[in-house]
Amino acid sequence: MEFLRYKSDVYGQRVLEGAAWDLLWVFLAAAVGFIVFHAIYTHRKMKRQNDEPEG
Amino acid sequence: MNNVPPGSGEQVLRHHLADRLYHWLMAICMLVLLFTGFLPVLGINFGWVDPHWIAGVVLTVLVLFHMIRAVSVLTLSNIWIRWQEFSTAFSATKAEALGGPRVKRKIGKYSVSQKAFHHAAALVVLVAIVTGLVMMIGIDGPFWERNPFIISESSRGIIYVLHGFAGLISITMIIVHIYFAVRPEKLYMTRSMIRGWISRTEYEQNHDPGLWK
After folding, report:
1. Hey, which residues 74-93 in chain B have their CB within 8 Å of chain A?
2. What is the pLDDT of residues B151-186, one digit of tens each?
């Protein structure tokens, strides 16, 4: 996967153009991944807390 | 405490109207910027340049307003992460993650993670604004003509990379921000960003008056 985009300038040299737009899906996936991880972690934490005997 | 509005003893003011307006106007700007910035990348082509830079200029004005307000009216210590606060939160989170008992911790006006999110968002938005303002030199506007020769090709590439990554990171941050805003235990905070206040009970259960200046 490329992180950057390049283009050729007027002299034919390779120059930096910007961030690679394929990364859009990586950043979307990172958000979804974090949410799934946090939701599972919090659910398990709450369940464990509810299962603990009071005292 | 000076956060209780007169005549409403059961409500504790968390966000002034000016700060709520700032938050929601910033949210609108960010969404306009992301949709106008990334829909063309996804193949949906339209005249995106004008709404994009206009939203960027509005966001710049809003951020300047917020920065001035932050140092003149708001209490900066409410958003600053103290070392003691960080180490306590880190130790408790680590202990919980390793199976230890959950310890209910009272926070100041904001939790450590909320403050960290704020600082990360501030950095990303400032990078997007500064690079965006430089990029505006390359387009025609109502009060200026484009001049693409002010900055070199290589410098322009770096500016575009920084602007692009600021936009990409914003996508992740906004989605995660919305996720936390709709979580049941955080809904009272989201309500305070709409109506301004939290209840006295919510304040006493979740917040430490010693940390909320």
Report:
1. none
2. 888 899 999 999 999 999 999 999 999 999 999 999
